[in-house]
Amino acid sequence: MQPASGIEGSINMIKSEALAAAKAAYDIEAACIAEMKRYFDDAAFSKAVALLCEAPRIGAAGCGHSGIICQHFAHLMCCIERPARFISPAEAVHGATGFLQKGDVMVLASRGGKTGELLPIVDICKAKGVRIITVTENTESPLAQAADVVLKQYVTRETDKWNAQGTTSTTALCMIFHALQAAMIEQTDYRAEQFALIHPGGAVGERLNAPKNKE
Fewer beta carbons under 10 A from the terminal one: N or C of the chain? Predict the structure, then answer.
């Protein structure tokens, strides 16, 4: 028998431990999301939804993986026609916080609640009358203490064996942002036909704009 080569050979070389780690990642993240519901605070979440629904503009900022998920959150807000943008922490202190005006809302995401790059943004928001929603696991942190509303991020462990990569933690943050959008759709009675207008592209746009959906 000839030795395996090419793609087939590469597949045969994958460690069993690698496949086991991949499958375990599903279980780790699923368990985290299931446990997160125990930390759901109705009062805090309701206040966050109210602030976001009333805000003329919404900003979001975070560093690293949290920043990437904040970009997703800003897009989620735009998808329900709440003007929003991700504000890079680096650009925030170089004029980008000019996007925010009194009555707006700034969402800050930091698992530890001590991200140094976000602290100057707090001072700017306070001076401008911008409300702050902090999403963090550390409710006693500086970013939590400075916030108008704190939403608790809960993380069991990351999916890598060193418990160091931003994996489960980003899933947990994403879940909170998805829950906020779901609640805001109900709170504002946002309709599918509204979304169809601003989303004519792709399979979703094709489905929403199909003639039967416009009758």
Answer: N
* 137-164 tens-digit pLDDT: 999 999 999 999 999 999 999 999 999 9
The position carrying tokens 């108008």 is 148
Say whether pLDDT at 61 is over 90. yes
Q: What is the dihedral of CA 105, 68, 44, 181, to 10 degrees?
A: 80
In the sheet that holds 149-152, the strands lie side by side as 84-86, 58-62, 105-109, 131-136, 149-152
Report angle CA 35, 42, 86 to the nearest 5 degrees: 80
Q: Return the closest-CA partner of residue 107 out of 125, 76, 132.
A: 132
Six-digit token string for 134: 């902090």
Say how many C-beta atoms besides its own lie within 10 A of residue 83's C-beta: 14
φ, ψ (nearest 5 deg) of residue 83: -55, 120
For 147, other C-beta atoms within 10 Å of its C-beta total 25
Cα R_g (the chain), whole angstroms: 21
